[in-house]
Amino acid sequence: MQTILEISSVSRDDQIAPLCQETRRAACRVVSEDVAARLELALAEALNNVVKHACAGTPDIPMGVVLSVVDPDGLELVVWDHGGKAFVPPASAMPDFDPDDIDALPEGGFGLAIITQCATSVRHEWRDGTNRIIMTFQESRP
Amino acid sequence: MPAATVTPVIAIPWKRLDMEHAEALKQAGIDFAAAGANRLIVDLSEVEFIDSSGLGALVGLAKRMGGRGQVALCGLKEPALNLLRMTRMHEVFTFCNSVAEARMAQGEG
């Protein structure tokens, strides 16, 4: 496994876009645009969760991204934070709705389902005060 | 003769419609609804990336306008369009290539 990018920042919403853009640029050197786009979306959702939940109410907690090549056409993306409480993904099915029942449309609850949909695999770890969500991305094979 | 009602346009100025900007878009929907609008055209031609927060703000606009198809999304690019398909929210909006096309579709051309 070869690490190709390690970047960190602090838990603020204006820090998410720069982390995503830099990670996508690095991912594009290894995987197709399509996979890099899926990776960027999953990363944004993971960082949103860090800012909104893991570090909620306490700004400027360290968070970061480690991107590694795991096989010739696969990437592992680790999103870590020192938010101090475990980030345990709840059920991650896409919210269901009736498009005609406009008042009941969900405005949230998509983030973890999007991660599950975009990544090839997802797992979570909490150790020594660090939360880690570990995702892999592979070119889809027929 | 009273002037014909013209559907308001929200032109998104950002490259990313994400957690940083979603709140501003939600507020615009609240303001337009308070002013009596029941249709909106959203110009997304500058937007290159949408996350679930941005999607939630768009859904908020649809709810404020009070019905399926009352919000037209214009100039939406891949992969943002993929996000709408992935979440099935493409069923809630109408899609147009441009603001002019949306106006034509609503008989305002």
Characterise this structure.
The complex is a heterodimer of chains A (142) and B (109). In chain A, 30% of the residues lie in helices and 30% in strands. Chain A has a five-stranded antiparallel sheet, covered by helices on one side. Chain A has helices at residues 16-27, 33-54, 111-118; strands spanning 2-10, 62-71, 74-81, 121-127, 130-138. In chain A, strand 4 and strand 5 (130-138) form a beta hairpin. With 142 residues, chain A is of the alpha+beta class. Chain A has three helices and five strands. In chain A, helix 1 (16-27) packs antiparallel against helix 2. The mean pLDDT of chain A is 90. Chain B has 109 residues and is α/β, with parallel strands linked by helices. Chain B contains four helices and six strands. Chain B has a four-stranded parallel sheet with strand order 1-3-5-6. In chain B, helix 1 (22-34) runs parallel beside helix 2. Chains A and B meet through helix 1, helix 2 and helix 3 of A and helix 2 and helix 3 of B.
Short summary of the structure?
The two termini of chain A are 25 Å apart.
Oligomeric organization of the protein chains: heterodimer
**SSE run of chain A:** EHHEEHEE
Instruction: Tell me the greatest interface.
Output: A-B, 31 and 27 residues
Q: How would you write the strand order of the largest sheet of chain B? A: 1-3-5-6
Shape of chain B: globular
Residue-averaged pLDDT of chain A, rounded? 90
Helix content of chain A: 25-40%
Secondary-structure element string of chain B: EEHEEHEHEH
The major β-sheet of chain B equals: 4 strands, parallel
- Secondary structure: number of strands of chain B: 6
Distance between the termini of chain B: 19 Å
Give the radius of gyration of chain A: 15 Å
Indicate the overall shape of chain A.
globular
> What structural class is derived from the secondary structure elements of chain B?
alpha/beta
The strand order across the widest sheet of chain A is 1-2-3-5-4
Give unreliable regions of chain A as ranges: none
**Percentage of residues in strands of chain A:** 25-35%
The percentage helix of chain B is 25-40%
Number of strands of chain A: 5
